[in-house]
Specification:
- The protein is an all-alpha fold and 401 residues long.
- The protein has helices spanning 2-13, 17-21, 29-51, 63-66, 69-81, 85-119, 131-160, 184-193, 197-213, 221-230, 232-238, 241-254, 308-339, 371-400, and strands at 56-58, 258-259, 265-266, 285-287.
- Strand 2 and strand 3 (265-266) form a beta hairpin.
Length: 401
């Protein structure tokens, strides 16, 4: 669904909205895209709010006193500081990966448009009535191809990558595969040749890093478009892998199990064909404190009837996704301060290098570093750090399995 949203957004951005819609939604391409995005957001949130039925949360006695804002923040900080090893590893991979993704997602379309105007002799920014709109449309075309690659990858990669559940020991799997005898050898070969999700995630970091390492050396629109398109494959995994691993870990820690006499445990899975094993209807309300365990100050409990633990861990993962954006913004601020054309003429050569940055939206500087390309290069270094963190995560899984 994320890939479909990308396709729709970038597809609209490639159109000349001023010619299609006039100035009804704004007097520039950017303003009209912003209005369309806001309307799409309102529509999607409205449909979700209308279609989803939430269960009422009933707090037990003294819950208001014991669940104040200070306690909630303290619990989140305590959980963050004492994360399980595997979840901590997932969060750190996400942290380094998103320092790399931040400049790409925010500046790649501008970088493609600037590359076109900097290095294409026939391109003239002075003849354009909407320079920023032209840059956005050129960049959005490359991101449209990026979205198509992401969409295709989102469909086919799950069939080409081995699920984390299949990496478990045979006695720990939720099912035992039993293909027909005639195709069993082929099925076994295909299953064995699939890379596991952890390996695929690590390779996606390296693919993204390899593409972005080339960004400062790009001198044509076609090459810039190719590099942006290649990143569609790692982006498909970036939208999928961390949440898969996090969901697996949360489920492993919080799912109820039955202890057998020999000390092993199992979880009974419902059989849709068995009416007696069908799950009970979902209640219309949730109780905040299961069996009033909070009244006994049992703060170290690992599970909760409301999925509180899962919510905290997913919130922490989002925190490790958000913090890199501040880091990326700080890095970009420094890079743009140093490499802004016209601020340090000795770093740039070409047409109007001395006066660049004063009047033109895009400066015709044919030689010298491109600030956005440098940010993408720094992001590639961080992506290598994410690949290294993913490899360390593999060692952690082997030790704790």
């Amino acid at each position: 669904m994320i890939a479909i949203g990308h396709l729709a957004g970038y597809g609209v951005s490639t159109l000349d909205l001023l010619k299609v819609l006039g100035k009804t939604l704004g007097d520039s391409q950017f303003k009209q895209c912003t209005v369309i995005a806001a309307l799409a957001l309102l529509l999607s949130v409205g449909v979700t709010s209308w279609a989803v039925d939430e269960r009422v949360l009933i707090a037990s006695k003294d819950a208001d006193v014991k669940s104040g804002a200070v306690k909630v923040v303290a619990k989140i900080l305590k959980t963050t500081w004492n994360l399980p090893d595997r979840i901590r590893a997932i969060c750190w991979v996400q942290f380094w990966a998103w320092i790399g993704w931040f400049p790409f997602l925010f500046y790649s379309s501008t970088w493609v448009g600037e590359t076109y105007y900097r290095y294409t002799p026939t391109a003239s920014i002075a003849e354009s009535s909407d320079a920023l709109g032209d840059i956005g449309r050129i960049g959005s075309l490359s991101l449209l191809i990026f979205s198509i690659v992401t969409f295709i990858g989102s469909i086919f990669l799950p069939f080409l990558v081995r699920s984390p559940d299949n990496d478990a020991k045979p006695g720990q799997r939720n099912f035992t595969p039993r293909p027909p005898a005639a195709v069993a050898p082929l099925a076994k070969f295909l299953q064995g040749s699939k890379p596991d999700l952890l390996t695929s995630w690590m390779l996606s970091h390296l693919i993204f890093a390899g593409a972005m390492f080339l960004a400062p050396f790009v001198r044509s629109l076609h090459m810039a478009t190719v590099l942006v398109s290649i990143c569609g494959i790692p982006w498909a995994l970036a939208c999928w892998a961390p949440f898969t691993f996090m969901g697996t870990e949360v489920n492993r820690m919080t799912a109820p199990s039955t202890i057998l006499a020999n000390g092993s445990s199992y979880r009974r899975l419902p059989n849709p064909s068995d009416e007696f094993s069908a799950p009970a209807p979902s209640p219309s309300f949730l109780r905040l404190n299961h069996l009033d365990r909070d009244l006994d100050d049992d703060e170290d409990s690992e599970d909760s009837s409301t999925g509180e633990t899962a919510g905290i861990y997913l919130g922490i993962l989002n925190l490790f996704t958000t913090l890199p954006q501040f880091v990326g913004t700080f890095i970009s601020m420094i890079v743009f301060e140093i490499l802004e054309p016209g601020r340090h003429p000795e770093l740039h050569k070409g047409e109007d290098a001395e006066g660049a940055g004063k009047d033109d939206v895009v400066n015709k500087v044919t030689e010298g570093p491109n600030g956005i390309a440098v940010c993408l290069f720094i992001g590639a270094i961080c992506a290598v750090g994410a690949a290294y963190a993913t490899q360390r995560m593999r060692g952690l899984y082997k030790r704790t399995r």
